[in-house]
Write a structure and sequence with these properties.
Number of strands: 23
Order of helices and strands: EEEEEEEEEEEEEEEEEEEHEEHEEH
Helix content: 10-25%
Shape: rod-shaped
Distance between the termini: 185 Å
Length: 339
């Protein structure tokens, strides 16, 4: 310590470091350039702490416990840095909160654009990895510069216990690809949602009467069904390669033809292409079959009536024939008696 009454200081007046010791062991030193070293004689920053113990910042409690934030480093080659919240004299670990009252957290970036932004600087390496009991979940890009995101984990299963929205590059297209191949795809503007149930016997669509109103029997079902034309066709894969149409012959209808007969079963998309609700043909077919069945029953009843009438006529004819035969016999007898 040196100086006058008005200018007293603790330190040096040359470029030699100021060293602090206890029990004749150096505890920390302050270099002439302002760098302070704890556990090192050559500090490289204003505060340089070396050693496995690291730094603990926190508050002490009267019972000897404390709540603190610990910073430490692994001294092994290729080691790591550790930030850990601890409490109860180090016997337990606490929660670590980052910006709990505002702000964002950036990993790999100094300008995070979201509450948490992880930037790996390019490539296809994992940007986010979560691990639990030996299983992990990884988020990464499909390829460098790609706008396709890959979700993968150890077991290879993805389960989402909630609603999920999926969208491809085109605003109205949704696709599922397995190992690079198209498993299924949807091209629509909306209304894909349908409350369905699945069992080993097929799919079930919501059809409870409580969900419906203005219920009426399909009118003129037979005439509508007779006006439809069932066709065989092949999809124009060459003109629409992005739609991944299947090859081979198909059975179905032409939307433009269907629209003239049952317009409520045809929808025109924003792109101008038309789609048919094939399922809607079923109730029309059912009512048409019922109409045919009613006509068949009517014809059967008419035929039965005609059959009964014919039987009556036959019986009457038989009776008349018997009477005529008896009359002829009587006439012959009279003629013989006159002789």
């Amino acid at each position: 310590m040196t100086g006058s009454f008005l200018d007293t200081f603790l330190g040096t007046t040359d470029n030699r470091p100021l060293v602090f010791k206890t029990n004749n062991v150096e505890r920390f030193r302050l270099l002439s350039n302002g760098n302070t070293g704890i556990g090192t004689t050559n500090p490289q920053s204003p505060l340089h702490v070396a050693g496995a113990a690291g730094i603990i910042i926190g508050t002490s409690a009267l019972d000897g416990g404390y709540t603190a934030l610990k910073f430490s480093l692994s001294q092994a080659s290729g080691g790591y840095a550790l930030i850990q919240a601890i409490k109860s004299a180090g016997g337990a670990y606490g929660d670590l909160n980052l910006n709990p009252v505002g702000g964002s957290v950036g990993i790999g970036t100094i300008n995070p654009a979201a509450k948490l932004e992880v930037n790996n600087g390019g490539g296809t390496g994992a940007s986010l990895k979560l691990e639990h009991r030996g299983s992990n979940f990884i988020v990464r890009p499909y390829e460098a510069g790609s706008d396709t995101t890959v979700l993968e984990n150890t077991a290879g299963y993805l389960f989402i216990n909630s609603n999920v929205g999926v969208r491809e590059r085109a605003a109205t297209n949704v696709a599922l690809k397995v190992a690079g191949g198209q498993a299924w795809s949807i091209y629509a503007e909306g209304n894909i949602f349908a409350s369905t149930g699945y069992s080993d016997n097929g799919y079930y669509l919501t059809s409870d009467a409580r969900f419906k109103r203005n219920i009426e029997t399909v009118p003129d079902a037979l005439s509508h069904l007779l006006a439809l034309r069932g066709v065989t066709y092949e999809m124009n894969r060459a003109a629409f390669p992005d739609r991944n149409f299947t090859e081979g012959k198909h059975l179905g209808f032409i939307a433009q033809e269907m629209e003239k007969v049952l317009p409520q079963l045809v929808k025109t998309g924003k792109d101008g292409f038309k789609a048919v609700n094939y399922e809607g043909v079923i109730p029309v077919t059912v009512e048409a079959i019922k109409t045919l069945n009613a006509r068949t029953l009517l014809q059967q009843n008419q035929m039965e009536a005609l059959s009964k009438e014919n039987a009556t006529i036959k019986a009457d004819n038989a009776e008349m024939k018997a009477e005529l035969d008896a009359l002829k016999s009587a006439v012959r007898q009279l003629q013989q008696n006159r002789k």
